[in-house]
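Researcher: I've been going back and forth with a colleague about how 10540_t:CDS:1 might be arranged in three dimensions. Neither of us has a model we trust, so I'd like an independent prediction. The organism is Paraglomus occultum, in case that matters for your notes. Sequence below.
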Amino acid sequence: MSNVYEAIKLLDSIEERTALRTFFINNPEKKAETELILSTCNDNEEVVALLKSLLKPVPAATVKVLTGSPDELY
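Model: Here is an independent structure prediction for 10540_t:CDS:1. You can compare it with whatever you and your colleague have in mind.
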């Protein structure tokens, strides 16, 4: 399955489906990347796991805000 919106229909929760549709509308580059990954999933269970992982918040430790000059980054 390579169409992200078809894959979203596999989710049980209306809230999850709505959240992902909104996410992909607001992040078209993520939609394209997700569609590439979907083609590597072996079954619908794997597709659902991937989509649900996108709904989880990104831990603050993995988000790095860069400020200052490039010399200060090293």
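Researcher: What would you highlight for our discussion?
Model: I'd start with this: The longest helix spans residues 14-26. After that, consider the following. Residues 21 and 27 are 10 Å apart (CA to CA).
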